[in-house]
């Protein structure tokens, strides 16, 4: 019952010829299954590093903004500069009826100041106050208590009031809206 060699394997030359391509295929598979994931992980690591560190290009710094949308000054360059003049304009207290979402009504009572850079803008604010209050009333009447909830609601409201006052006066005359009192009843 001894096995006889087949015709191909009888002389032994064909076995070496078949073994060489199998070894080459094994090296290719090994390179694909180990080398390719290593390359992918390396590229992913570089991409993550660039994402979290800003890519190493310092010329595209993003300014950090405060709650009023103004850039926050960091470093000694800004500390030596004199502070800008800031003036405040008091808007009369407003009471607005808003919908409460369940078919009823709620009352919004709000008082705030406008931050302006130039004292002369207050004269223009006095003259344009009826238009500004009309803009504010129209916006605030559409609000619901859930729109005003939390700090995000207050922030969005300040930004929208700032946008509306600057629509009436012109761009960048009012820097910020500062809320003094805000009651929904």
UniProtKB/TrEMBL annotation:
<keyword id="KW-1133">Transmembrane helix</keyword>
<protein>
    <recommendedName>
        <fullName>Flagellar protein FliL</fullName>
    </recommendedName>
</protein>
<dbReference type="InterPro" id="IPR005503">
    <property type="entry name" value="FliL"/>
</dbReference>
<keyword id="KW-0283">Flagellar rotation</keyword>
<keyword id="KW-0969">Cilium</keyword>
<keyword id="KW-0966">Cell projection</keyword>
<keyword id="KW-0472">Membrane</keyword>
<feature type="transmembrane region" description="Helical">
    <location>
        <begin position="30"/>
        <end position="52"/>
    </location>
</feature>
<keyword id="KW-0997">Cell inner membrane</keyword>
<comment type="similarity">
    <text>Belongs to the FliL family.</text>
</comment>
<keyword id="KW-0812">Transmembrane</keyword>
<keyword id="KW-1003">Cell membrane</keyword>
<keyword id="KW-0145">Chemotaxis</keyword>
<dbReference type="Pfam" id="PF03748">
    <property type="entry name" value="FliL"/>
</dbReference>
<comment type="function">
    <text>Controls the rotational direction of flagella during chemotaxis.</text>
</comment>
<keyword id="KW-0282">Flagellum</keyword>
């Amino acid at each position: 019952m001894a096995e006889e060699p087949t015709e191909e394997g009888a002389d032994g030359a064909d076995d070496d010829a078949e073994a060489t391509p199998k070894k080459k295929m094994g090296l290719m598979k090994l390179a694909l299954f180990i080398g390719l994931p290593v390359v992918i992980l390396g590229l992913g690591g570089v991409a993550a590093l660039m994402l979290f560190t800003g890519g190493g290009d310092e010329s595209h710094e993003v300014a950090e903004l405060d709650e009023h949308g103004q850039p926050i000054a960091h470093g000694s360059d800004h500390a030596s500069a004199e502070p800008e003049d800031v003036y405040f304009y008091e808007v009369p207290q407003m009471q607005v009826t808003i919908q409460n979402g369940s078919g009823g009504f709620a009352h919004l009572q709000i008082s705030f100041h406008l931050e302006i850079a130039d004292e002369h803008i207050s004269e223009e604010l006095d003259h344009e106050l009826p238009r500004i209050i009309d803009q504010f009333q129209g916006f605030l009447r559409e609000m619901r208590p859930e729109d005003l909830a939390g700090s995000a609601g207050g922030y969005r409201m300040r930004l929208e009031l700032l946008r509306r006052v600057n629509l009436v006066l012109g761009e960048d005359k009012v820097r910020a809206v500062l809320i003094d009192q805000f009651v929904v009843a």
